[in-house]
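Sample entry (79 residues):
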Amino acid sequence: MAEKKFEKALEELEEIVHALESGELPLDEALKAFEKGMKLVKYCSGKLEEAEKKVTMLVKAENGKVDQVPFEIREEESG
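Predicted structure, serialized as tokens:
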């Protein structure tokens, strides 16, 4: 269920960004929207950090111990 909350928060954040970029919001509404957007950014960032920790892979070392190795995303080379 956390994924749905993340997705919903991300959608809401995108709506706020579009509303702020339009320049059509009165100043007081723009400030409220910005404040809400900052809270959503903090929430989404926290969820992404949690997901990154969960993606950390366990790899057996040569000595038989289990070490944590962070999952690395490799960028595709252009060309």
